[in-house]
Amino acid sequence: MTTNAWLPLLVLASSLIPGLIIFTLPEKAVAWRITLNLGGALLKILLLVLMMIGVFHGVNYEFRVPLVPGIDFVLHADALSLLFVNLSAVLWLATTVYAIGYLEDSPNRSRFFGYFSLCVTTTVGLAMAGNLLTFLVFYEALTLSTYPLVVHRGTEVARKAGRTYLAYTLLGGVLLLAGTIWLHALTGTLEFVDRGFVRGLDLDPATLRMVFTLLILGVGVKAALVPLHAWLPQAMVAPAPVSALLHAVAVVKAGAFGVVRIIYDVFGIEFAAELGVTLPLAVLAAVTIIYGSVRALFQEDLKRRLAFSTVSQVSYITLGVAIAGPIATIGGLAHLVHQGFMKITLFFCAGNYAETLGVHKVSELRGIGRRMPWTTAAFTVAAFGMIGVPPVVGFVSKWYLGLGALEVGQDWVVYVLAGSSLLNAAYFLPLVRAAWFEPPPDEWPHERNFGRKETAWMLLLPPLFTALAALAWGLFASMPGTPLDWVQFIAARKYGS
Amino acid sequence: MSTWLAALPWMVLAIAIPLLGALAAFVQPRRAQVIGLSFSFLTAGAAVGVVLDFITLGPQQHAVGGWGAPLGIDLVADGLSILMLGMSAVVGVAVSIYARAYFVPYPDKAPRFWPLWLFLWAALNALFQSADVFNLYVTLELMGLSAVALVALTGSGPALWGAMRYLLVSLLGSLAYLVGVALLYHAYGTVDLTLLAERADGGLQLAVPLGAMIAGLLLKTGLFPFHVWLPPAHGSARAPVSALLSGLVVKASFYLVLRLWFTFVPEGEGLPLLLGCLGAAAIFWGSIQALRQKRLKLLVAYSTVAQLGYLFIAFPLAGLEPQMAWSGSIYLALSHAFAKGAMFLAAGAIMTQGGHDEIDELDLVVDRMPLTLAAFALAGISLAGLPPSGGFVGKWLLLESAMAQGKGIWAAIIIVGGLLTATYVFRVLGFAFTRSEHHHERHEVPAAMEWTALLLALGAVLLGFVAPWALPLLDGVLP
Fold it and tell me: What is the ipTM score, two decimals?
């Protein structure tokens, strides 16, 4: 086995350096900015392909330097991190294309794309973090790099939303820090290990439960677990590409990914189950799923409805992990990717409606399918996926979650899944029906003319691509190379079989 | 060439060059700016020379004029000294470049600023290299007087009032210290730190002078509740002066507390606990006051009160694992020098641009001066102890030493203090993104001012990555 230290760094640099250059670009340098953005995004995907081939051939990708006495800064590419890195890289490319189209004439684009790149850099770093301290570094850096995006519009509302966002996320960071430092004092190490490093150290279970609670609450803020979710709907004031990225890749996923890391690579799932901490977490996730769906039902604003839907959907990941069975793990981890593609599609479409026709409210969607058929088609696919209708990928996640719960005798989870699916149907189906089958209004709230096309191609292409991916992975779920296939490989390692 | 350079007495030069520069700037007021800046670079160069000597040859001792202690003056540079020298060099050069641009519109202030600042720098470098308590007193007094004069440079009402209070406190502190020195000399017949460490035998004849000296130094450091002079002085001074006071001057008296502490290693639990509690009180009081401020510079000044509190948290933690707690405290002091220097420079640039420093009237600073705002944000990240930054490393070390001893309460104080810091930093940043209701006339800000603030702030962030190389320098210094 050989070790390659530079590729993980290059993967980070492929978005960090373009981001830093973009900050210095004048507002008018559109071509330069686009080149740097897309070039960086494509380069990152290329590097990741190289890395996946390398991992397949047994290369160990690890970058390590000392950070504080006794603890290193570690970037490490394992199967789990590659799952999240790939998700981020692909969706970053899609979102960059979308954002270029979306922000065409708005001010402060250099600032926007600069922070946008930093945000992806920190997400990728978080995915590749090889120990809890490195994870913490990127977790906080993510908070800091998303804050300017949340307040980007510079309005009073945006400033207040930014304040709420920070209040929650910094509090989460502090809890995570407290848990991390405590754990280090107890164990003397923070390195992520398959099946956990806390296992077998003969520590006081009560203390470990406290540490676990601190860590999970710390990441739970970003994962929007009830009652730590209130920042998410408020952060909706940000421009649509930011919401898309926040909901599908960066922030909430960082939280969910943190839950995964803490349970599998810090405590180890079997040990966590022994401690008796997984069941309360599963219950909390279930409560979040139901609560988010119920709240979504009553939102009149489309983006807010989607936001509460995120609160609900992201907790599927936590639920899958906390059920503590191999099959449920597959469902939860697969949902990390699946939810990303479906939710980003929905946000792209919501952004298209707002940009093209000025439609922001659920009630204004009547007949929009005739005016914008392609966008609405993508929206429909993603909405069906969220409900769990086969053959869209959302079905695959729910299927594995349900099976996994039955496998370990947690039958109540099936009822939660069924109830949540019903609620999902209740808040998505009326929209889809109204969009396709009701007559359009005489006049749209604020229509922009794109000639014969329904909207700008840069706004249309990304949702079509992500919706297609969500459909294809559902159809060909068991083929090699799908997220599901990769996730099965990860689950086998985490359960040591 | 290299041997010739290596043979130079860098330790003396680090003191003589700024002294010479101060004189030159004083007798040539018209060329004060040019002279001042050139001598700043030379001084920093000399400091680098001392640092390199230390790295290649180990701890250095230099008997000035060939007369060693106890008759002559001995200069000593160990790991702690060179960290402080290096810190002064970096902050000093940044402030000098900034000041040259800053004082262009004030031709009457520049000829007064440069001699005082170079004089202050000479005093600082001498203080960091002195090895006997009396020389330390002399350097402390020189530093205090030049610092007070620098505050008075502003010339307006509140600044003069602040300078007056500062002068009284500074003199009182030095006096208490001097009393301690006299008592020590009386009891042990020497003022040399090494000899004192050998002869000191505990008991009242050590406790009384040591208590007087430390009390005087705490007064000069501005530890809660002795901080009342600090915000008016630091908040009303000219921006480069504020950066020097908050970044360097308060660190010098803190450095002296550490020196005394490491030399005499006072026994007992009471005093460390008291210092720790005062530190904790400073963190909370300073942060809450910072949150309440309407003016940016006062916010930054109260933040100094709070951050100085952190430095004293190490005292109650140093019992079992002294190495880690002291390293954390010293590293926080270094990062604070960079970050707070950068923050005051940024605040000065913002004030130059808008003509005011009302926080809720910041008015789109993010668009108008992105570099400055980035400097402020990065400095704030380090102050709040968010990773990656020097502040994070320092706090991490303190936290780790607290948790390793099961003293979770100190860890909680450190963490909550960080949260409060983040709150007041982001309060400023939030208003920088919005448009203000009132119209403010805009002024050009020289690029040199924006860039120096940013680079200094980047230095604070960079400190977060070099700890494994910087901290071993302290081996052998810590008890």
Answer: 0.88
